[in-house]
Amino acid sequence: MVKKEMIAMLLAGGQGSRLGVLTAKVAKPAVAFGGKYKIIDFPLSNCINSGIDTVGVLTQYQPLRLNAHIGIGIPWDLDRNIGGVTVLPPYEKSENTEWYTGTANAIYQNLDYIESYNPDYVLILSGDHIYKMDYEIMLDYHKANNADVTIAAMPVPIEEASRFGVVVTDENHKITEFQEKPEHPKSNLASMGIYIFSWPALKEALIKLKDQPNCDFGMHVIPYIHQNGKSIYAYEYTGYWKDVGTLKSYWEANMELIDIVPEFNLYEEFWKIYTKNDALPPQYVSADAKVERSIIGEGCDIRGSVFNSVISANVEIEEGVEIHDSIIMQGTRIKKGSRIENAIIAENVEIGEDCTIGAFEYAESQLSKKIYNCELTIIGEGSLIPDKVTIGKNVAISGKTEYSDYPEGNLPSGGYIIKAGEN
Asked: Is the pTM value of this prediction over 0.85?
């Protein structure tokens, strides 16, 4: 097998449970983003733009659509005879067959794959962040410091630091201490979950920790390497990076794309984001339609009004519809006279005539305060909303609902309807 200097391992097996009904049927990295892309397109595009042509994608939860999207890697120029993209699900072994139980355990179970390329360095990536980064510059930094591990880190407001793994560094950016989601952070440098390991150091740690339950990079591997006197450096990143792990951050990252000068620019020539493109007809916007400050995907039929929203491909918006500050995913149909505000509507949903979504005053969720805790109304994939219903804020709906599911035609704020088998 041909030796590679650095290969990437992309962790894409997570459910992303904090996205609620949006990830009931699809892995988080396969969730739509920006009207055209999937979340996983960003790290994959970063790899090929950084000159990394060997990527293992570790899948587990609901992998079907993710596998179909990645295919043999053609959109990212990763359809290579040597290297390219390989999807790595858990598989049966002669002994001790198990699911991936933690980020590091998933890599440990694929040591043979890494070994087959005998790399000098292994880049570990997460499949659920939105950013552009040149990993080659990070690798140069890793080599210059003669590091065993380099962790990409970025400054965050100190009051938010307790949400992240925090690194404490000396004046040379060498890491002296780790704090995993600390109550009282000693630094505001947050780990981004992007690591470059020198392969011998990673291999030794994974083998040593193989019996560690739920073995994880932040909790186990990095501290182990640190305790054994190896050198770990922080690579400070100052560009745009968004963890779209919550409904609010996912919605905000989409909405930032439609700013006049977007903080995250999808249109840069020199750092393209690649994706699988279906052959779709152009969008149609009727004479009576009104579209302001929005992204409209291919194949859409727009006859109503769209303001400040991200509309994916093949969406049908009928006459008299008004959409404000919302994300509408592929293949959804919104019938005449409906009004939608502050909503995320997943793929292939049908909204009946004269519905109002995002009404009433905000109320706490009766389903999960941890997941549903903002103004947004979330409607899961393939759902059906009947005619003439009014749905409040901070609501979750999944499944084919009927008028009788809505007392007096209403679903108050904080409420939910999850049909059996649709959770």
From this structure: yes
